[in-house]
Amino acid sequence: MTTSHYIAGRWVEGQGSDCISVNDPALGQPFAEFMAASVAQVDQAVAAARSALPAWKSTGANKRAAFLRGFAEQLGQRREALITLQMRNNGKPRHEAEIDLDDAIATFTYYAELAEQLPSKNRDVPLAVPGFTARTRLEPVGVVGLIVPWNFPLVTSAWKLAPALAAGCTVVLKPSEVTPLIEQAYGQIADALGLPAGVLNIVNGKAETGAALSNHNGLDKLSFTGSNSVGSQVMRSASAQCRPVTLELGGKSAIVVFDDCDVDQAVEWIVAGITWNAGQMCSATSRLLVQDGIADALLPRLQATLENLRVGNPLTEEVDMGPLTSQAQWLKVASYFATAREEGLQCLAGGKALDRDGWFVSPTLYADVPKDSRLWSEEIFGPVLCARRFASEEQAIAEANDSRFGLVATVCSADLERAERVADALEVGHVWINSVQAVFVETSWGGTKGSGIGRELGPWGLSAYQSVKHVTRCLG
C-alpha cells in the first residue's frame, strides 16, 4: 500500500516518519504497511476542509442527506470485503463483524433522515418584551477533527462522520494506526459518490499525526473516542484553543444481578457483556455484582460457560471469541493476570494467555474480588470479569456507583419495578435492563464522571456538530 491518505479529494502517499504496520492478530503477523501522514499533510487536510466548508454548509439539507444515503448504500455493496477486513484486522468473529457493518449503515441512514427533518435555518422566538423580534439559527460548527479508536473501526467513525456531514461540517478523520484500513472505505465511497473535494479528509498515523490534528488551530471542534490518558491530552489541546470537544473515554462498568433472575438468562447477559469483541469495549460490564441468594448457583454456571467458549481465528474457525487486536493489548491483559496472581485473587476460569500463534487470551472470571484490587477498579480492556457479592439493593447501587467511570451498566431482575428504580439510581450514561448491550442509533451514547464529555448518536449526536446563533432586532 502506498496511497493511504485521502486529502482534498485525492489519494496520496504518506510523507511522515512513521511506518504503519497492519497486523492480523490471529496470526500475530503483518499483512500491510505504509507511511504515516506528515504534519504538513495534516495541515493540507485541514486547509482542504476549511476551503470546502462554505460551499458544503450552504448545500441544502436534502442534498447532504442524499450523500449520506449514498454512504449507507455503498457500505452495503462492499459488505463481504468489509466484514472480512474487520475479521482479519480486528480479530472479530463473523457475527460481530456483520453487526458492526449493519451499525454503520444504520447510522448513515438515520442521519440522512434527520438531515431531511432539519428545521429551516431561522426559527422565530417569542419575546415577553414588546418592540423586538428574535430568531435562532442552527449552523454547522465548522471544520471538525475526528479521532477514532481501534476496537470499533468503521462504527465509531460512522457515529461521528454521519452527523457531522448532516450538520454541514467538513471533517478530517484520523483512524487508529492499529486498524487503519477499513476507514479507507469512506474515502473510496466519497470518490464514488462525487462528494465535493475537501468535505472528507482521512489522514493515518501514530501519535505524531494525532497530536498534529488535535493541536491544529484550523479546527473548530474535536471529537475523540479512546483512552482516558490520550483523551486528557486531546482536552488540553482543545482548551489551548478554547474550542468545543466531545470525549468518549473509558469505563469500568457494572452488571447487577438480583436473586430473582433466571440463572441461564443471567449468564447469557453476563458473558455477552465481557466477551463481545474479546472484552475490548469501553462499555464492557467487567464488574459483576451478584446477590447472595443466586451467587452459589450462578458462579459455577458462569465458570463452565466461559471455559467452554470457542476461542480462535475467525477466518478459519467457528468461534465465539477472537484474539485481542494488538500485541500491546495482549501484553497489557497478561500483566493483569500477573497482578491477579500477586494479589492472590480466586480464579474460577481462564487467567492466562493461550499457547498458540496470535494474541489470544482465555475468557477469565475472578470471584470475591476485593474493592482495593487493581482489577476491580482499573479498565483492563479484555475478557476479564471480576465478581463480588451483595446483600441489598442499596449496597448494589453504592458499589456500582463507586467508580471514577460512569459509562454504562446492566441490571438483571425479574422485578421490573426494582430494575427501573436501580437504573435511575446508577450514575452512568446508558443502562440496559435484562438485555445484552443492544445499541440503537436513535438513543444517546456517552458517560458521566471520567467516561467523557458530550453525547453521540440520536439527535444529540447531530446537535454536537451544530452551533446556535441568536439574532435580535429592535423594531423602533
Describe, in plain words, how this protein is organized in 3D.
The chain is 40% helix and 22% strand. It has helices at 39-58, 61-77, 79-90, 94-116, 155-167, 184-193, 207-214, 228-241, 263-275, 292-307, 327-343, 374-377, 393-401, 416-425, 458-463; strands spanning 3-7, 10-13, 19-24, 29-35, 122-124, 132-140, 143-147, 170-174, 200-202, 221-225, 245-248, 254-257, 287-291, 346-349, 364-367, 384-390, 405-406, 408-412, 430-433, 448-449, 452-453, 466-474. Helix 2 (61-77) packs across helix 6. It starts with a strand and ends with a strand. The mean pLDDT is 96.
Largest sheet: 7 strands, mixed
- Looking at how many chains there are and whether they match, the oligomeric state comes to single chain
Question: What's the mean pLDDT score?
Answer: 96
Total count of helical runs of at least 4 residues: 15
Structural class: alpha/beta
Gyration radius over CA: 23 Å
Count of β-strands: 22
Q: Strand sequence of the main sheet, in spatial order?
A: 14-15-16-13-12-18-19
Question: What proportion of the residues form beta strands (DSSP E)?
Answer: 15-25%
CA-based shape: globular
Fraction of residues in H or I helices: 40-55%
Protein name: Betaine-aldehyde dehydrogenase
Family: Belongs to the aldehyde dehydrogenase family.
Keywords: Oxidoreductase
Domain Aldehyde dehydrogenase: 11-471
